[in-house]
Amino acid sequence: MRVLVGGGTGFVGTALTQLLRSRGHEVTHVSRQAGKDRISWDQLSQSGLPQCDAVVNLAGENVLNPFRRWGDAFCKEIIRSRVETTKTLAKAIADAEQPPHAWVVVTGVGYYRPSPTAEYTEDSPGGDFDFFSRLVSSGEAAALIPGSPARGAVVRSGVVLGQGGGAIAQMIWPFRLGLGGPIGSGLQPFPWIHIRDLAGIVCHALETEGLQGVFNGVSPSSPATSNGSFARELAAALGRPALLPMPAWAVRAVFGAERAVMLLEGQRVVPKRTLESGYSFMFPDLPAALKDIVA
Ligand code: NDP
């Protein structure tokens, strides 16, 4: 299968590209910069969809970039980088003479309202209570292509755990130095997924005829994981203590109050439809996932 991947140069895209190529698929990225096996968003808008059998969008400015001040300009960039890229791909698919068979977009579990107790499946309500939930709704709405023969699937991802990027890269050094610990109270749920499973779910959605709709991209044990238990397991995987909590005020000072919610609160999310669809997780449990990543 020929697969076009928007944002395929990034953290998740690199893992997905490796997996797809290992399964014999051809991968082309859509990027802000054209290059080898890569077209630019401008080229896509001007020349239309290249011949392909499936399309994925992973493009998005990193919301938790601590070097970007939280404010209107950054929020606009976050929206543009996800919603506009998804719209551009959806339009290219809608206009294609030979449309692809499958179209998959990765959004986030920020769709569901943070709660210490509620458990959410793909059918639970959400998507309209804060910036992040509306960001997910707008991204998912932008992906809709009425009447298209392309099968549409959305993967709502939790915090992606993998080597060399994402959350682990941001927090590994304090933990390696024995200075890590829970964020805030540590009681908030921590919805997580191993990067190979997120890539695996996207690949499963691309390859499995008939799959469409929303799939939660979190590990089956993630509803039982709190931020505190994650901190303990990460420290244990590194053979270090996890004693120093990061106070809520410090998180708010670095990220801004609105964005700090992503770290200080969380959702218990169940991958119900994902499991029912026949996907088998490689890393359902946190200790093995972390051992694989930090060992
Ligand atoms: P990355 O931060 O690695 O970014 C993915 C790609 O997006 C980049 O390689 C880049 O491609 C493109 N991009 C970045 N900024 C912009 C911008 N301002 N405008 C246009 N394109 C941009 O993301 P991940 O791989 O970590 O995540 C992939 C998707 O999964 C994202 O949409 C993210 O929101 C979602 N997700 C990720 C989670 C995580 O923990 N990582 C959690 C939940 C959801 P290029 O430079 O080639 O243009």
The distinct bound ligands, ions and cofactors come out as: NADPH dihydro-nicotinamide-adenine-dinucleotide phosphate
How is the CATH topology named?
Rossmann fold
List the strand order in the largest sheet.
Answer: 3-2-1-4-5-7-10
Parts with pLDDT < 50 across at least 5 consecutive residues? none
What's the number of structural domains? Answer: 1
The CATH architecture assignment turns out to be 3-Layer(aba) Sandwich
**Assembly classification:** single chain
Shape: globular
Number of helices: 11
Supply the CATH class.
Alpha Beta
End-to-end Cα distance: 34 Å
β-sheet strand percentage: 15-25%
Under CATH, the homologous superfamily reads NAD(P)-binding Rossmann-like Domain
Helix content: 40-55%
Biggest pleated sheet: 7 strands, parallel
Give the integer mean of the pLDDT values.
Answer: 96
The topology string of helices and strands comes to EHEEHEHEEHEEHEHEHHHEHH
